[in-house]
């Protein structure tokens, strides 16, 4: 059965669908000896698909779904040209190649999903699915009720309006405070920019939930497999299954 080439690459575990599209645009993918183009379809069983000249074959290994508590000052990547620590350093004992689902900034920490299932990764990251992501955030100062309302209604940042699906106070400290904020978008450093805009720079940012998956008691650097129920709930939200778990 023919499928779009970027979908085939994702299903093979080469990369997420978004990254696969970049590989195609860079001219690194060929189908039956010709450079592939976005939107092109191929039969993964009958076509010769190559990446950088290397023939790819459909993967038969089982799908892996993991939750990692990413420590602060770790790159959300499997390699880093600057030699900084990466999430790969925390994958010892994991069989096969898994890659991060989306991103978590170098100076942020908390829940990061990882998988070898490209369709699952695409479902989590695609903005149309509006999968909520929740964060505990330590900021300078204490937000007023009006500033919380501004976050919920939307504030203008460099690339347009951004809003919090939910925002509420958690704890007041001597000079700073903790709050909880949930977003359904995924723009670069969005929460940091939003809080800077209302006058409360971020001191610490911890992602605690992605959709139905909670960070829970995982310690920094620890991994756990997602439960079948968690996987199915995310797939349902992403439109990959028809029935909720």
Any overview of this molecule?
With 245 residues, this protein is of the alpha+beta class. It is built from 6 helices and 17 strands. The strands form 4 sheets. Strands 7, 8, 9, 10, 13, 14, 15, 16 and 17 form a 9-stranded mixed beta sheet that branches. The radius of gyration is 20 Å and the shape is elongated. 31% of the residues are buried. The model has no long low-confidence stretch (mean pLDDT 91).
In total, the number of strands is 17
User: Average pLDDT across residues?
Assistant: 91
Biggest β-sheet strands, sense, barrel: 9 strands, mixed
Which descriptor suits the 3D outline?
elongated
Helix content: 10-25%
The structure class reads alpha+beta
Order of SSEs: EHHEEEEEEEEHEHEEEEHEEEH
Low-confidence stretches: none
Radius of gyration equals 20 Å
Measured between the Cα atoms of the first and last residue, the distance is 28 Å
Contiguous helical run count: 6
Oligomer: single chain
Question: Percent of residues in beta strands?
Answer: 25-35%
Short description:
The chain is of the alpha+beta class and 245 residues long. 21% of the residues lie in helices and 29% in strands.
Quick tags:
four-stranded antiparallel sheet, 245 residues, alpha+beta, 6 helices
SSE map:
Elements (H helix, E strand, L loop, with lengths): L2 E2 H7 L5 H9 L3 E3 L2 E2 L5 E2 L6 E3 L2 E2 L9 E6 L28 E2 L8 E7 L2 H8 L7 E8 L4 H9 L1 E3 L2 E3 L3 E7 L3 E8 L6 H8 L4 E9 L2 E2 L8 E3 L2 H10 L8
Parallel strand pairs: 9-15
Antiparallel strand pairs: 1-4, 2-3, 2-5, 5-6, 7-9, 7-17, 8-9, 10-14, 10-15, 11-12, 13-14, 15-16
